[in-house]
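This section describes the prediction task in plain terms. A model, or a person checking by hand, is given the sequence of a single protein chain and must write out its three-dimensional structure as a string of tokens. No templates, partner chains or ligands are provided. The sample shown here is typical of the held-out split.
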Amino acid sequence: MSALEDILVSGRARRVYSGAAWSVGAAAGPLDRGWTGTRAWDGPPLEGDERWDLASVTKPIVGLAVMALVERGALDLTGVVGTYLPDYRGGDKADLTVAQLLTHTSGLPGQVPLYREHPTRGGLLEALRSLPLRTAPGSRVEYSSQGFILLGLIAESAAGAPLDELVDRLVCAPLGMKETGFTPDIALRTRAVATEDCPWRGQVVVGEVHDENAVVLGGIAGHAGLFAPLADMERLGRSLAGGASELLRPETFALMTAAHTDAHALRRGLAWQGQDPVGSPVGPSCGPESFGHTGFTGTSIWVDPAAGRYAVLLTNRVHPSREGDGIVAVRRAFHTAADALR
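The expected answer:
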């Protein structure tokens, strides 16, 4: 048993999740990969091809599509919301820039449960349009799923195509991520890993996006909704470790993954989280120029460009309940062990 497997088997024994899958490697391929546990606590053993709810790991994948649109001239990082979404003109979000949405510096508040009072797509989007800014744009970093919902709408408007089609065409297809996408069909749902026993839905969620705001939006949104198997996340990790040349020009990728918010004491790239000196979700083992993203369901992808390495961790830590923070220690131990691989 490898050190990584030992850590993840132990996490299951402590009931942090029912199942986990992982891959650590470089552009040339994985150094260590595998899976352990079951799809649900009363479910069948993992076989390696399961679909995982990526949760907020959706954000940087959508961000890659956004940056591809920037390269093509369809979007401008300095462009403002009102240019792309006429309904927002004249409001407090009209002058927010695409870059501010990507770096979580727009002033939009963070995890707002709009779904509770607005159970329809139209109602939720109207609530988003009227949601007051919490801080002045550009003044601080506040992680905001609402900002990425808005970013998804902007990408659709600028490209004249639905978000799921954009992500598939600009990210998944070039990388061969053929089994990654929003809203799995019935056949794919049978391969999904269980998430929460959701009080709002009254059932254990399997194959439907865990995020409730995304549910109301139809399962396709800029902040959450993608499902993927381990093999596809490996493809993404290998590409990112090698500079993502299949997706973006080198200068665009460098701009995307650079730190843009150091003045605010939290490192954010364009849709990526940087390596914070204190409180990093992956601990201190990754290099200072590393970047990645975590997902609420217990997923993450992290890349250390100096080492040319990626690390993918997929779990269902919200099953059967979102309570508990055991994933924090597991994730940090995983990355410490991953860094030691040679």
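For orientation: The chain has one domain: 3-339.
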